Amino acid sequence: MLDTVAKKSDYKVVGTRPIRPDGVDKVTGRARFGADLNLPGQLVGRVLRSPHPHARLVSIDVSAAAALDGVKAIVTREDFADQPPELTAAGEMMLNYRDVVRNVLAREKVLYEGHAIAAVAAISAAIARKALRLIRVDYEILPHVTDVVAAMAPDAPLLDEAMITAGVTPTPTTPSNIAKRVDFGHGDIDTGFAQADVIVEREFRTESVHQGYIEPQACVANVAEDGQAELFVTTQGQWIVRGHCAKLLGWNVNRIKVTAAEMGGGFGGKTVVYLEPLALALSAKARRPVKMVMTREEVLKATGPTSAARVRVKVGAKKDGRITAAFAECAYGAGAFAGSPAGGGAMCAFAPYELEHVATIGLDVLTNRPKVSAYRAPGAPIAAFAVESVLDEIARTIGVDPIDLRLKNAAKVGTRSTYGPTFAAIGFVELLQAAKAHPHYSAPLPAGQGRGVAAGFWFNVGGDTAVQLTLNEDASVTLTAGTPDVGGLRASLGMMVSEELGIPLDKIRTQIGDTASLAYNFVTGGSRSTFASGMASVEAARAMVKELAARAAKIWDIPVDAVKFEDGMLKPAGDNAGKYEPMSIRDIARQMAKTGGPIVGYATLNAQGAAPGLAFHIVDTQTDPETGKTTILRYTALQDVGRAIHPAFVEGQMQGGVAQGIGWALNEEYVYGADGRMQNAGFLDYRVPVASDLPMIDTVMVEVPNPRHPYGVKGVGEAPIVPPMAAIANAVARGAGVRFTQLPMSPPRVLAALSGQGAR
Amino acid sequence: MRYEAPDRIEKAVDLLASAAGEARVLAGGTDLIVQMKSEIVEPDLVIDVKRIAEMRGVVEEGGAFRIGAAVSGAELKEHPRLRKVWPGVIEAANLIGSTQVQGRATLGGNLCNASPAADSVPALIAAGAKVIIAGPAGRRELAVEDVVLGPRKTALAKGEIVVAFVLPKRVPLAADAYLRFIPRTEMDIAVVGCGVDLTLDPAGKIIAARMGLGAVAARPLLVGEAGAAIIGSSLDEPALARLEAAARAACRPIDDKRGTKEFRVQIAGVLARRVVHIAYERAKASAKVST
Questions:
Q1: ipTM of this predicted complex?
Q2: In A494-611, where do the E strands start and end?
């Protein structure tokens, strides 16, 4: 273990499992989610959406709707200035403001069923609905394409008639739906394949899947007569919402104060704006608060799921399991505007492995579907489904244990990654060893069952972060962070501060600040909140200790560097040791006024040194040969978690990722008709797993601390959704005898494959 | 929207018959309220029938059961006699939605919502249940299999309400069962539903059999050929093969987001085989339980 990170046994609070501070409010229904705020005089905002997947917007006539009694404001494309192309980060993906303004309200064309066209604010939902029916839209219907492969065909209908594929030399002369190509890798794969004893080459298809957060998008906007605005919203990032809205409205960012509600799930999907600029614009027009809440149908049809994709993989290996060459092409659907996570997929595809010859390609493909947004490790699960399936075939072909195959090729500290950088901290070998030693891996398997394994990789990020710590007059501490709490962050940050200050956790209240209370914070995303806000919280605590020492020095009238902080007490040190009675933080708090005023600890930083997250999963499945239904019987998720600050929350992230992955593997998919409309826009027919579909998901936290974090933290939220699809496909291949290269492995598809009717 | 909650069936019939705009009967509301919230229906009049005593009780009359159309699945499950005598009907009613939904959802609502995939309907068809209908012209009876005509279409005339279901008197050595196929384990809608009711002779030979199939056609079906296929047998393999073939032959499904035609046809045969085994074992065991 590295000496920059203390040993686990040195901690008093970190690594324990205290009750979460937001738990009681949540289980009693008191917590305020996005739709739980109501303001006096509030109007209801509703959105008119396109029934067509692709059409030119000839005209929008709102006059009849505007004349309806009770309608207070209407906005259309006329109310938002066009934006020039400008890239900005939102969550883990990039957005182009030119596209954001078009996604929020369609301009020249509607590009998917559900694309917003106009928004109405009225005194009741019934009047708002009636007003929407009175808006007359003249469409010129255009041919559409919802399938990612069809969209790449030379004669496909074009979403953007001027789009020339970027990243290709020479520059293409004809437009296409392929927005961009990105390339990664090193070595020469032809040389590598020539050295291989065995080569497996497969093509995989996956469908769009939605994050499936239970809480729909919701917000309340309140623009005052002087133009100052407040926005209460369910979001993973108050500051990015503020920035996007201000940009689209042409306002200074400080005109909008954004407060993040408690969040009923985000998983990356709540890092972009949909309703928020509309609610602000409507409120500014009506001079009344406007509340907007999406229906589930709107959430599924008009917010960003992740990509439908085609992935081609080719891997060559020696008989001993050493991989000689690896290739992957990740063609990911972006939906209506460029910006699929194809790059992330291409980078993560072979990232867990040390390879001499590797090439990966990402293709970003426009389709007439909602613009994709981030979903937990964006891009990686799709690529891992393909790559880890092929590795399983290689292992079976050459007769090598699948964990041994991965051990033989595992990336280590110092390995040059397949996407460029050299790994400074990576615990893949330790993880694989833990998996091989786990009783699940060697447990006897009854006939008819299959056991599959797969690995997953995610980068994890740091980024802009600000935290404030206030010492209160009674020596309690208020910690204000700016990254919304999606998985127990408040407890975890409080625990690190408790450890630093030697103050009990119940004396520390952690809250998530609004955009007026702290400097800029990037979103909760990229598995960064415990890492980055944790780093800032520790820095803030250490800044506070410095100030406490200064106050003690002042009281004792000794130099600051003659004061040390130990066991929560300020003590005279060096020559002064023992000369004065040690003082507690409470003693200093009592004398704040006399010694220089209120005491805070503040930290702003751009967190660096995020270490990758690696996950390895073992799953047992059974497939009913008569119905094609696959049951998950046993699941063990192992992960290099760095250091688990609050182990229960880390386990929760691991189990949650697996649950979503099981849904992705078995039943979740966007079903489109030939008319380009989504057929299953509701939770009845978009099937996320229910509790009884899942076994107890066992977790094993392998702690390989991150040397770049004061408590060894690595992001843990995303890696666990990367392996499940491949692990389950590998289990089904071994148990039911059919290798699936298409998701989901739903009963009709499985039964058809089992009875040899074709489509896999 | 006008809301009425009459306490007499005649009053409900009057309201329904004289309604000018769109009128809907509200029992548990697990379909109607969802449809209203998602703006599929916008009724001008909603008639809540839960205050009508006749629609809210379960009465055993000479061995037959009369079940109010507005009795919830959870209430049916707690009835000490019903779940012993008609386990198939009760298990079907208690597959609808979730535990919370089962506390509200009723047989009347499940039937009159007229979904081809309603869980309780194939079980009621297999059981030989009849409905008592009240309307402006008085009362009439109809076999359950004749109520649903197609998706969202019933044989009810304007002003008619399903008041109750009648399950016939049981003979000895008889039992029913219901199975459905869903991609998940609960809170789902049947891709195929299959109910069966069997009567055995003391030697274990099937002397009567009725089978209902759901979600395989525009409406829930009574599959006479499937019942006939196993009468006279003790579920030997040729009989089961005939049953499976008859069940599949009856299917006239569509391809949709819930499954392909081929899949539904295949599953109908699989469920038919599986469900008759359950009913058969129950019927044999019923000899030990007094009827």
A1: 0.94
A2: 508-512, 563-566, 569-572, 583-584, 599-607
